[in-house]
Specification:
By secondary structure, the protein is of the alpha+beta class. The protein has three helices and six strands. A six-stranded mixed sheet has the order 1-2-3-4-5-6. Helix 1 crosses helix 3. The longest helix has 13 residues. The mean pLDDT is about 85.
Length: about 100
C-alpha cells in the first residue's frame, strides 16, 4: 500500500488541482476504493487541500474534498461579475458531511 500511496501522492503533486478519479485510476492502475482511501490519507497528511477538487468524470458529479464522498448538484444560480458579465454558479452539497461547494 505504501508504494501505491507514493504513486498517488506524486501524481497529485505533479498535476495541478483538478482531477477525474477515473483518469487517476487508469493512469496508476488502481481501483476506486483504494484511491479514495489513499486520498483520505493524503488529506490527513495535508497533501490534498481545499484547493484540490475531484470529479468522477460523470456530469455534475463532484467529490467532496473533505471526506471524498460524492457531491450532488443542488442548485444553479446566475450571478453578475464585477465586470458586469453574467455567469453561472453551480452549488454542490456532499451527501455525507453536507459541505457546500460553489463552482
Amino acid at each position: 500500500m505504501d508504494s501505491v500511496y507514493e504513486k498517488v501522492k506524486l501524481f497529485i503533486e505533479d498535476n495541478g488541482d483538478h482531477y477525474y478519479l477515473c483518469e487517476i485510476e487508469d493512469i496508476l492502475d488502481i481501483d476506486e476504493e483504494t484511491l479514495l482511501e489513499i486520498l483520505r490519507e493524503l488529506k490527513k497528511d495535508n497533501i490534498v487541500t481545499e484547493d484540490h477538487y475531484f470529479e468522477t468524470g460523470c456530469l455534475n458529479n463532484k467529490i467532496c474534498a473533505d471526506c471524498f464522498e460524492p457531491m450532488e448538484h443542488e442548485d444553479t444560480k446566475l450571478e453578475e461579475t464585477p465586470e458586469g458579465n453574467i455567469q453561472y454558479k453551480y452549488i454542490y452539497r456532499c451527501h455525507k458531511c453536507f459541505k457546500k461547494e460553489y463552482y
